[in-house]
Amino acid sequence: MKDTAKHQGLRNQLVSTLQQKGITDLRVLDAIKKIPRHLFLESSFQDYAYQDTAFPIGAGQTISHPYTVAFQSQLLEIKKDHKILEIGTGSGYQTAVLCTMGAKVYSVERQNELFKKTSALLPKLGIRPKHLTFGDGYKGLPTYGPFDSIIVTAGAPFIPQPLMAQLKIGGRLVIPLGEDVQVMTLLIRKNETQFEKHELGEFRFVPLLEDKN
Ligand code: SAH
Q1: Which of 40, 62, 106, 109 is the most exposed place for a label (fewest CB within 10 A)?
Q2: Is pLDDT of 1 > 80?
Q3: Residue of minimum CA distance from atom 20 in ligand 1
Q4: Is 182 in the pocket of ligand 1 (CB under 6 A)?
Q5: What does UniProt list as catalytic (predicted)?
Q6: Where are the extended beta strands (E) located within the chain?
Q7: Domain boundaries, the chain
C-alpha cells in the first residue's frame, strides 16, 4: 500500500478544488490533505481517487464524493475528543476523516462484506475508530450514546427516532433526507424535546436500508 509524492500533489489539488467549492473548515481540509483516498478504492479506480467523484466500493455501494464528505464533516463542527456516531461506514474514508480530526468515532455498517473489509483496512492505515459495528444504523448505538454529533452517509426516507434520542443537547445530526434526491438536513438539539432544522442543498446518496445484510 503505497502513498507517494504524486498522490500528495493530487491531494493538494483536491483540497484547492474543495476550497473553491466553499469548504472553509481548515481541520476538514487538513484531514483530506493527509488521508490516502486511493487506498480506500479498488486498484482499477486508484488513478482517479483525487477527482471529486464517487466510486463503487462493492456490495452495490459507493464511496461518497470528497466534496460531500467535506461538507458533512464541516457541518458536524467537531471538537477534539467529540463522540461521533457515523451510520454507513462503507469504505471507511469518512470514518478516517473524522478520526484524523480528533473525534472518537463509532461507526455502523449493515453490509457484512464492507464491515469486514473496512475493519481490516483502517488499522493498516493507522486509523483507529473507537468502535466499528455490523448492524442496522436505523437503531443507532444506544449502548455507546449519547453522541456529540451524528452523521448519516446514506439517503434516509425519514429521520430515525433513535438517532434523535441518542444526540446530546446542543448536538448536531447531519442526515441526507429524501428518496431519489436528498436534501442535506442539519438538526441541532436545543433541549429534551426541541430540534432546530436547517436544509442545506441537494445531494445524491445510496439509500439507507433497514436490517443487516
Ligand atoms: N461513508 C461511506 C459512505 C458509503 S455509502 C464512504 O464514504 O465510503 C453508504 C453506506 O451506508 C453503505 O456502505 C451502506 O451499506 C450503508 N448503509 C445503508 N443503510 C444502512 C443502515 N441502515 N445501517 C448502517 N449502514 C447502512
Answers
A1: 62
A2: no
A3: 208
A4: no
A5: 64
A6: 55-58, 61-63, 83-87, 104-109, 131-134, 147-152, 167-177, 182-189, 195-203
A7: 57-203
Q: State the distance from the centre of ligand 1 to the C-alpha of 5, rounded, in angstroms.
A: 31
Q: What is the pLDDT of residues 3-29, one digit of tens each?
A: 999 999 999 999 999 999 999 999 999
Residue with CA closest to ligand 1 atom 10: 88
**Apex 203 CA angle, 202 and 204, nearest 5:** 135
Written as nine digits, the cell of 72 is 458533512
Q: If you ran DSSP here, which 8-state letter would residue 65 be given? A: P
How far is Cα 89 from Cα 94, in angstroms, rounded to an integer?
Answer: 7
Phi-psi region of 140 (alpha: psi -120 to 50; beta: other; left: phi over 0): left
> For the whole model, what pTM was predicted?
0.97
- Output the CATH code of domain 57-203: 3.40.50.150
- CA 37 to chain centroid: 13
Alpha carbon nearest to ligand 1 atom 11, residue: 88
User: What is the rounded radius of gyration, in angstroms, for the C-alpha atoms of the chain?
Assistant: 16
At 213, the pLDDT band (50, 70, 90 cuts) reads: confident
**111, 114, 205, best to mutate for ligand 1 pocket (most atoms within 8 Å of CB):** 111
Residue 39 near ligand 1, beta carbon < 6 Å: no
